[in-house]
Design brief:
Structural class of chain B: alpha+beta
Largest interface: A-B, 45 and 42 residues
CATH architecture of the largest domain in chain A: Up-down Bundle
Number of domains of chain B: 3
Order of helices and strands of chain A: HHHHHHEEEEEEEEHHEEHHHHH
Number of strands of chain B: 10
Strand order of the largest sheet of chain A: 1-4-5-8
Shape of chain A: globular
Order of helices and strands of chain B: HHHHHHEEEEEEEEHEEHHHH
Helix content of chain B: 40-55%
CATH topology of the largest domain in chain B: Butyryl-CoA Dehydrogenase, subunit A, domain 3
CATH topology of the largest domain in chain A: Butyryl-CoA Dehydrogenase, subunit A, domain 3
CATH class of the largest domain in chain B: Mainly Alpha
CATH superfamily of the largest domain in chain B: Butyryl-CoA Dehydrogenase, subunit A, domain 3
Number of helices of chain A: 13
Largest sheet of chain A: 4 strands, mixed
Distance between the termini of chain A: 31 Å
Radius of gyration of chain A: 22 Å
Number of domains of chain A: 3
Oligomer: heterodimer
Largest sheet of chain B: 8 strands, mixed
Number of strands of chain A: 10
Radius of gyration of chain B: 21 Å
CATH class of the largest domain in chain A: Mainly Alpha
Shape of chain B: globular
C-alpha cells in the first residue's frame, strides 16, 4: 500500500495546473468563482472548445474516439484540479452520459456523427428520463413512441430536464411496449430538440434559478435510425449509463473548493470581537467536515483503483454519492451559518454596504447556493435509493 | 498510488487470523478473560512462535523490523479476534520505544526476551493530568547515589499487571524535557492497583514512591521526539484494532439480519433496518480509509503532518466506533444486550477505543486550533 501519488501522476498534476493557469480565461474563472451563471452556456462551450483544442475534451473516452487515454486516477486528478481552479464543469449529458452508451451500443453511423460533435461542443445535450409519475421508479415511465414506418411518433412529458433550454439534442427513455414487465418495453432514443412538436417550459426552482425544465413531446417524429441499440432494450442501456463514469461522483474537487471558501469566509467574518474562525465551536464544525472529506478522498481513490481493474464500477459508488453530497450540503450550510444576517439577502438584491466584510467572490450567492445544493441528495438516484442499492448489493440482505 | 498489500503482508494478516481462530472458541476466550491473568499464556507463546512479538524489533536486532502498515494488518486481526493478550501494549508500543531508544546493552538484555514472549514490557506514560497525550508529566526523577529516584503516579496503564518491566516517563528535576526509566515491576516503592477495563483487558494504576533504579536504568536521553513518534505509531495500530472491531460488528449485524425472522421474514428485508446498515457500512468504509491513511503516516517523520493525520483518524474512527457499535447492538435487539453474543464485546471494545489515546473531542479540538491558526 502506498498512498502517495507516483512521480508520473505528480508531473501530470503540474501539467494540468500549468494548463489551467495558461488557458482558463480570467473572466470565466471569475464568473465560476462568483457562482455567476449569467453566461453559463457560453462559458461551458468556450471551455469545452479550449479543452478539445488541447486534446483533453473527453478525459474518460477511449483514445479511438478522441479521448485522452488517461488512467482513472489521472481523470480524477484532472477533475479535481479543474474544480480547484474554478473552471466550469464539463457538461456531463453528452460527454459522460450519452457518449458511453453510443460507444457501446450505438451504430457506426451514430458514433461517427454524434461523438465528434460532443467532443467539439457543437451539440448541447440534455437528458429525458424522469416524468411526473416516474422519479425513483423510473421504469414506470409513460412517454409513448409509436412506430410509423421508419419513424417513431413520440408523445409525452419529461421533467427535471437540466439545462434543456440550451439543448440541441435530448436522449430519452420512451415506452415502445406496454405488454410485459415495465423494464422490458423501454427504448433509448436520440431526439433533435429542434423537431416540431417539442415544447420546453422552465421550472422555477426554490433558489429562483432556471436550471430545469419540463419538456413536452406532441407527436414528435423521430427517425428509427436515432434509436440506440435494440427496441425494448433501453433499460439495459439506461442502467449501463447510470453505472458509468463514477470517477467524480464524490465531487472531491468541488468539496475542497467549498471547504476553502468556508474557511475564507470564517476568516473574514467577525463574531463579537474576534474572527469567526477563532471561535472554537465554529472551528470544530469545520474540522468535522474536513476529516470526513479527508476520509472520502481516500475512499474515492480506493474505488477508482478497484474500478481500474474490473470494468464495471461496483455499488461502492453509492457510498461516494451519499457521503460526497452530505459533505457538500454541510459545507453550503456552514457558509450560510458563517455569514449570518448577511445571508438573509434575497437573490438579486444588491449587498448592503458594511453588513458583512466579505468580498463578493467569497460570499457569492451563498444563500442561493445553499438552497440549490439541496438537490444533490435528490438527483442522480436519491440518497435513499443509494442506500437501497448498498443494502441490496453490498449487504445482500 | 496503490492499495495493495504485498504477499508477505497478506500472509502476515492471514496467519495472525489463523492463530487467533485456532486458539479456541469464544467461550474459551471468555474463560481466559475471567482468570486471574486475564489472557491465555498459550496464545501468547503462539504469537511469539509466529514471530509477531518481534514485529517491531529491528532486523539488525534479529527482529522483523515491520512498518506501520504491517502493524495495521496485524492489529486489525487482533480487533476482529477480540484479543485479550498484551500485544498492543508490549509488542507494539513498548517494543517500538525500546527499539528507538535503548543502548546496545539494553537491547541485548530486553529485545530477545520481548521477542520470545518471556518479557512483557509496557509504557507507563499516561497520568490522570495528561490523558495519555504528550504533555509534561508530574512524575519526577532525582539523581541519587547509585542512579535515580522516581516519584509519581501513572494511571490506567494497560497490561501493567502482567508486565515485568515498566518504561516510566518522568521529568528530571530541574531539567527540561522528558526522560525514560526502566523499572522492574517488583521494585521497592512501586505499587500497582490492577483493574479490569471496559474492553476486558487488564490495566493498573501505578504509584512510584521513592523507587530507586540504577544509572543504567535510564533509556535514551531526551525522549520527547521518540515518545511522540511511538505514541502516534501506536495510535495508528490502535485505530486498526478498532477498525477490525467495527467491521466485525457490522458483519455480525448483517449476518444476524439475514437469519433473524420476525413477521415471517428476515428482518434484513425491512428498509428501516437496511438504511441503518447502509449507514453503518459508510462509517466502516470511511473508517477503513482513515485507518489506511493513519498507517501510511504512522512513521511519517514530519511531526506536524503526522499529528494532523493521526488526530483526524482518531476522531473519525472514534465516531464510527461509537455509531457502528451502538447500531450493532440496536439491530441485534435484546440479543445485542447479552454477554453471550460477540456483538456486545465489540461494542465494549469500541467504546473503550473512543476513551483511549485522546478523546474524539480533544482530537477535533486540536484540528480546529490548526484551522484557526492557519494563516494561508
Amino acid at each position: 500500500m502506498n498512498l502517495s501519488l507516483s512521480p508520473a501522476d505528480l508531473a501530470f498534476v503540474d501539467q494540468v495546473r500549468q494548463f489551467l493557469a495558461d488557458k482558463l480565461p480570467a473572466e470565466i474563472r471569475q464568473r465560476v468563482a462568483n457562482r455567476d451563471e449569467s453566461q453559463l452556456k457560453h462559458d461551458i462551450v468556450a471551455w469545452q472548445k479550449i479543452l478539445h483544442q488541447q486534446g483533453w475534451g473527453a478525459p474518460a473516452w477511449p483514445v479511438e474516439f478522441g479521448g485522452t487515454g488517461w488512467s482513472k486516477v489521472q481523470q480524477y486528478l484532472f477533475e479535481t484540479e479543474c474544480a480547484l481552479a474554478d473552471a466550469p464543469l464539463q457538461l456531463a449529458f453528452g460527454l459522460k452520459m450519452v457518449a458511453p452508451v453510443i460507444m457501446r451500443f450505438g451504430s457506426p453511423a451514430q458514433q461517427q456523427y454524434f461523438l465528434p460533435r460532443i467532443l467539439a461542443a457543437e451539440d448541447w445535450w440534455c437528458q429525458g428520463y424522469s416524468e411526473p409519475g416516474s422519479g425513483s421508479d423510473l421504469a414506470s415511465l409513460k412517454t409513448q413512441a409509436v412506430r410509423d414506418g421508419d419513424e417513431y411518433v413520440v408523445t409525452g412529458q419529461k421533467v427535471w430536464n437540466t439545462l434543456g433550454q440550451h439543448a440541441d439534442w435530448i436522449f430519452c427513455l420512451v415506452r415502445t411496449d406496454n405488454s410485459g414487465k415495465p423494464q422490458r418495453g423501454i427504448s433509448f432514443l436520440l431526439i433533435d430538440m429542434h423537431s416540431p412538436g417539442i415544447t420546453v417550459r422552465p421550472t422555477r426552482l426554490l433558489d429562483g434559478g432556471h436550471e430545469v425544465n419540463e419538456v413536452w413531446f406532441d407527436q414528435v417524429r423521430v427517425p428509427v435510425s436515432n434509436r440506440v441499440g435494440e427496441e425494448n432494450h433501453g433499460w439495459t442501456y439506461a442502467k449501463f449509463l447510470l453505472g458509468h463514469e463514477r470517477t467524480n461522483i464524490a465531487g472531491i474537487g468541488a468539496n475542497k473548493r467549498e471547504l476553502n471558501r468556508l474557511k475564507s469566509i470564517a476568516r473574514a467574518c467577525r463574531q463579537n470581537d474576534h474572527r469567526l474562525i477563532d471561535d472554537p465551536v465554529f472551528a470544530s464544525k469545520i474540522a468535522q467536515v474536513e476529516i470526513e472529506l479527508m476520509a472520502l478522498e481516500i475512499t474515492n481513490l480506493r474505488v477508482i483503483e478497484a474500478d481500474e481493474r474490473k470494468q464495471a464500477p461496483g455499488p461502492e459508488a453509492s457510498i461516494l454519492k451519499i457521503k460526497g453530497t452530505e459533505i457538500m450540503q454541510r459545507l453550503s450550510e456552514l457558509q450560510v451559518e458563517a455569514l449570518g444576517p448577511a445571508a438573509l439577502l434575497s437573490n438579486g438584491e444588491s449587498r448592503i454596504a458594511g453588513l458583512q466584510p466579505v468580498s463578493d467572490e467569497l460570499a457569492a450567492n451563498a444563500t442561493d447556493f445553499y438552497l440549490n445544493q439541496r438537490k444533490v441528495s435528490i438527483y442522480g438516484g436519491s440518497n435513499e435509493i443509494q442506500r437501497n442499492i448498498i443494502a441490496q448489493m453490498i449487504l445482500q440482505v | 498510488m496503490n492499495f495493495d498489500f504485498s504477499d508477505e503482508q497478506q500472509m502476515l494478516q492471514e496467519s495472525t487470523r489463523r492463530v487467533l481462530a485456532a486458539a479456541g472458541d469464544f467461550e474459551q476466550r471468555n474463560a481466559q478473560r475471567d482468570h486471574a491473568l486475564g489472557y491465555s499464556t498459550q496464545l501468547w507463546r503462539e504469537l511469539a512462535d509466529l514471530g509477531l512479538l518481534a514485529l517491531n524489533i529491528p532486523e539488525a536486532d534479529g527482529g522483523i523490523g515491520a512498518g506501520a502498515v504491517d502493524n495495521m494488518l496485524v492489529c486489525e486481526a487482533m480487533g476482529e479476534g477480540l484479543v485479550l493478550e498484551p500485544f498492543h501494549a508490549s509488542a507494539v508500543e513498548a517494543t517500538s520505544l525500546l527499539a528507538r531508544l535503548a543502548d546496545e546493552q539494553q537491547r541485548q538484555r530486553w529485545l530477545p526476551a520481548l521477542a520470545s514472549g518471556e518479557l512483557i514490557a509496557v509504557l507507563a506514560h499516561a497520568e490522570s493530568s495528561n490523558g495519555g497525550a504528550l504533555e509534561p508529566t508530574q512524575t519526577r526523577a532525582r539523581p541519587s547515589a547509585d542512579g535515580w529516584q522516581l516519584d509519581g503516579h501513572k494511571s490506567m496503564i494497560y497490561h501493567a499487571p502482567s508486565a515485568a518491566l515498566l518504561l516510566v516517563s518522568a521529568q528530571i528535576e530541574g531539567a527540561p524535557g522528558l526522560a525514560l526509566f526502566a523499572v522492574p515491576a517488583d521494585a521497592a516503592g512501586l505499587s500497582l492497583t490492577p483493574v479490569a477495563t471496559l474492553d476486558a483487558q487488564r490495566a493498573a494504576d501505578v504509584v512510584l514512591r521513592g523507587v530507586q533504579v540504577g544509572a543504567d536504568a535510564r533509556i535514551g536521553s531526551e525522549i520527547s521526539k521518540a515518545l511522540s513518534e511511538v505514541l502516534d505509531f501506536s495510535l495508528a495500530a490502535l485505530c486498526a484494532d478498532a477498525f477490525g472491531a467495527i467491521q466485525s460488528a457490522l458483519n455480525a449485524t448483517i449476518e444476524y439480519s439475514r437469519e433473524r425472522k420476525q413477521f415471517g421474514q428476515p428482518i434484513g428485508r425491512f428498509q428501516a433496518l437496511q438504511h441503518r446498515m447502509a449507514d453503518m457500512l459508510i462509517h466502516a468504509e470511511q473508517a477503513r480509509s482513515m485507518c489506511y491513511l493513519a498507517a501510511s503516516h504512522g512513521d511519517d517523520p514530519d511531526p506536524a503532518q503526522r499529528r494532523r493525520i493521526l488526530s483526524a483518524a482518531k476522531a473519525l474512527i472514534g465516531q464510527a466506533a461509537r455509531k457502528v457499535g451502538q447500531e450493532a447492538v440496536q439491530l441485534h435487539g435484546g440479543m445485542g444486550m447479552t454477554d453471550e453474543l460477540k456483538v456486545s464485546h465489540y461494542f465494549r471494545r469500541l467504546t473503550a477505543f473512543e476513551l483511549r489515546g485522546g478523546s474524539t473531542a480533544s482530537h477535533l479540538q486540536r484540528l480546529a486550533t490548526d484551522i484557526s491558526n492557519d494563516r494561508s
